[in-house]
Write a structure and sequence with these properties.
By secondary structure, the chain is of the alpha/beta class.
Length: about 250
């Protein structure tokens, strides 16, 4: 059962760096729904886009799958024969709960695309040939120096016509734009019931863990990695989703 996110509701003597542990896994659906503008639209559309691009008898990767929201969406929308989804996360608590969610989805719905969840570091995971790769709010938690090598490996694994779906929180070079959208994001959180204390403590917990890039940085890096085209398909406040394609 999912709980309401109250992880930062009480004053903390020391705010530790954010980790995807059992406490976070327990409240994660509530946390992300109340924290990421447009998240349900992004997840549902990832499934739709994957359904358009998944080739028959190919693999699909959901890298940094957390609780498998994108995987569940793709299982519903991908209809190409012989496809299989591999969902990967390095946090044991997230992997455990993701498996529970996928098992429950399988029990409720027939004819879903097969999926398996594995616990692994996506920076070390050998990638097999595939037609779709999803990085849904994952790259921002990876060391910036390691982002291009990961994207290059993904590009090499993708078959011709394959796609990468990349969702990220954005930062902005213009200080006024950055402040304006940050303030709107905090207003979004307040509207969803978070207190000023919760917003401040969560910000402290995540600032050394999540390092956002600008949209231009993302698009330039995707070009460097060898993708033939890359563009954003969705943005709500300072959250964005992109698609990168291979010839």
């Amino acid at each position: 059962m999912n709980d309401v996110d109250k992880l930062f509701a009480q004053p903390l003597t020391k705010v530790s760096d954010f980790v995807f542990d059992h406490d976070v896994a327990r409240v994660f659906p509530d946390m992300i729904k109340r924290s990421v503008p447009g998240y349900p639209t992004i997840v549902e559309t990832i499934g739709l886009i994957a359904g358009q691009h998944a080739g028959p008898h190919t693999l699909i990767y959901d890298l940094g799958c957390s609780l498998g929201a994108a995987t569940q969406s793709m299982r519903r929308h991908v209809r190409s024969q012989g496809c299989r989804i591999i969902a990967v996360d390095n946090a044991p608590a997230m992997v455990e709960r993701c498996r529970e969610y996928l098992s429950a989805q399988s029990a409720m719905t027939e004819e879903l695309t097969p999926a398996e969840v594995i616990e692994a570091d996506i920076l070390e995971l050998p990638l097999q040939p595939c037609s779709v790769v999803v990085l849904n709010f994952t790259l921002q938690f990876i060391n910036p120096e390691l982002r291009l090598p990961l994207l290059s490996r993904i590009r090499q694994a993708l078959k011709p016509g394959g796609i990468l779906l990349l969702s990220e929180k954005l930062r902005f070079d213009d200080p006024d734009q950055q402040q304006r959208l940050e303030n709107l994001h905090y207003a979004f959180k307040r509207a969803n019931g978070y207190s000023e204390l919760e917003i401040a403590q969560k910000r402290s917990a995540i600032e050394n863990v999540m390092r956002p890039d600008t949209l231009d940085t993302h698009l330039q890096r995707l070009q460097q990695a060898g993708f033939s085209q890359a563009h954003s398909w969705f943005q709500c406040l300072n959250f964005c989703s992109m698609i990168a394609t291979c010839d």
